[in-house]
Amino acid sequence: MRRSVRRCFEEGGYVYATRAAEIAGRSGIEPVARLASNENPFPPPPVVLDAAILALRGVNRYPPEQQCSLLDALKRHHGDYHFAAGAGMDGVIETVIRVLAEPGERVVVATPTFSFYGVAAGAQGADVVQVKRAADFSVDPDAFTRAMEGAPLGFICSPNNPTGNATPPENIARILEEIDGVLFLDNAYVDFSDLDYRTLMRDHDNLIIGRTMSKIYALAGLRIGYAFLPEWLVGPYGKGATPFAVSTVAAAAAEAALGEREWSEAYLDHVRTWRGRYTHEVGHRVYPSQANFVLVDVAPLRSDEVTEALAARGVVVRSCRSFPDLEDHYIRVSIGDEWENERFISEINRL
User: Fold this and answer.
1) What does the alpha-carbon distance between residue 28 and residue 14 come to, in Å, rounded to a whole number?
2) DSSP class of residue 246?
3) Domain end call among 258, 290, 312
4) Engineered SS bond to 252: which of 55, 207, 271, 276, CB 3.0-4.6 Å?
């Protein structure tokens, strides 16, 4: 029997911060500062944990086909838009590509950025076209629009991972007006910015906005994301989605988390404070960020070199070497708990 692996999975794929974590584990330093994955360092508030625990009583049953209670909560939180939920925003991305991109069609991605767009598009058999951002990591609307000619789908992350900068809403509107395909705008980190793209949904039916409960709501371990969809896409999205993808526990926790505004505002204040401290106290160039992480230029050192040296000192950060179209002298550092941030500043400045 012949066994084969598709070429797109023979090498590549999503890159984790595994090696740095292993080095940190061998360092003997406890606890380790975990600043590689843009996680919220604080557990959810008690009301969210209580909702999840209560939902556990029903896990002998499959979850609903649609998490209607959560979708209603999203409408109360955001307004009268059309929503869909998925197993993390990754699950939403996979479904959108599955529904909109035929094998062999082009999917356009503004790089450097989150690598999973390309991984998921390649898995669907699409051809990934990368549009390199400018030197300041901004997206050129004209270049992106030209690349989108004949393409059914494109991806822009704003605020962008790993650079932290945001694309102005007026530039997104300009792109939407000039393309025939659909734009997926990844807003995973928009809660940490001063920007609001939601009103663009009113005037453009070729826009999808992806959001996540992993960051400001501290539910990364439950894997739940959602999207604002144009009305015409609601039905096809439901047909293409993985059955029962959103667990009952995750949906219950997410619904409760949406109501905890004071808790999320406190975390937002924490992020803003430490973004400022990173900028002023780290002895390397720190790029302006509208996310819960910063990009640090460690030149003339290299990304992996610094990542492994910090790991040996009990600080796990993300090497950016694997990000397409990003030079090998950047690291990405999350905003963690106070002790984690203090240790990072101390150790990076000792290198």
Assistant:
1) 28
2) S
3) 258
4) 55
Q: Are residues 109 and 205 in the same domain?
A: yes
Q: Cα(297)–Cα(335) distance, rounded to whole angstroms?
A: 16
Residue 28 is encoded by which pair of tokens? 């003997």
Same domain, 128 and 96: yes
Give the per-residue pLDDT at 23.
Answer: 78
What's the token pair of residue 123? Answer: 């898995």
Token code pair at residue 200? 């663009």
Question: Structurally, how many domains does the chain consist of?
Answer: 2
Q: Strand locations in 173-329, DSSP E? A: 182-186, 207-212, 225-229, 285-286, 293-297, 315-316, 318-319
- The residue whose two tokens read 């051809």 is 127
- The 10s digit of each residue's pLDDT in 120-167 is 999 999 999 999 999 999 999 999 999 999 999 999 999 999 999 999
User: Which among 166, 256, 275 is positioned nearest to 213, based on CA atoms?
Assistant: 256
pLDDT value of position 184: 98
What is the percent of the chain where pLDDT is above 70? 96
**70 and 31 share a domain?**
no
> What are the pLDDT digits (tens) for 193-237?
999 999 999 999 999 999 999 999 999 999 999 999 999 999 999
Residues 6+ apart with CB under 8 A from 50: 256
- Residue 185 is predicted with a pLDDT of 98
- Residue 308 in any domain: the answer is yes
CATH of the domain at 23: 3.90.1150.10
Residues 95 and 161 occupy one common structural domain: yes
Q: Which residues contact 3 (CB under 8 A, 6 or more apart)?
A: none
Task: Provide the H-helix boundaries in 179-225.
Answer: 200-203
Q: Which amino acid is at 209?
A: I
Query: pLDDT tens digits for 326-339?
Result: 999 999 999 999 99
Bridge partner residues of 333 (DSSP): 294
Q: In which domain, by residue range, is 168 found? A: 46-258
Q: Is the pTM of this model over 0.90?
A: yes
Sequence letter at residue 300: P
CA–CA separation, 81 vs 29, rounded Å? 48
Residue the block writes with tokens 């945001």: 166
